Amino acid sequence: MARNKKKNSRITKGEKFLYFYASLAFVLMLGVKIFCGAMVGELKMSIEEKNYKIDSQEKTNESLTMQVNELTSFENVKEVVNEMGLAYNNENIVVIDK
């Protein structure tokens, strides 16, 4: 009768230690990657929100600039002067160049 010899396939303590900490490191790295990905996504959303606010403020500024230009136009000023009963005098006008 031939005995079947069992092969000893025991895992040593050192191997268990290595496997445990390798799997722990893998899980921790996965968690860090997910956390950092969530933070990056949140930052991107915040940036897009700020860009939207900046764009809307630029449109508002442009609209207000156009209104100022309309109100300071020569025709409008002349109309207001005439309504107030004042006279237009060319000698009092000073042109300033930028």
Question: Could you list some keywords that capture this structure?
Answer:
single chain; 98 residues; mainly alpha; 2 helices; transmembrane
What features would you describe in this structure?
The protein has 98 residues and is mostly helical. The protein has one domain. The chain contains two helices and no strands. It has helices spanning 13-71, 74-84. 0% of the residues are buried.
Summarize the structure.
With 98 residues, this protein is mostly helical. 71% of the residues lie in helices and 0% in strands. The chain has two helices and no strands.
Secondary-structure map with pairings?
Elements: H1 13-71, H2 74-84
Transmembrane segments: 20-41
Organism: Candidatus Coprosoma intestinipullorum
Protein name: Cell division protein FtsL
Q: What shape does the CA trace take?
A: rod-shaped
Structural class call reads mainly alpha
Report, as a whole number of angstroms, the end-to-end distance: 112 Å
Reported for the largest beta sheet, the result is: none
Radius of gyration: 39 Å
Q: Which regions have little confidence, pLDDT < 50, spanning 5+ residues?
A: none
Number of helices: 2
Question: How many strands in all?
Answer: 0
Total individual domains = 1
Q: Give, in order, the helices and strands.
A: HH
**Proportion of residues in extended strands:** under 5%
Name the average pLDDT: 88
The helicity comes to over 70%
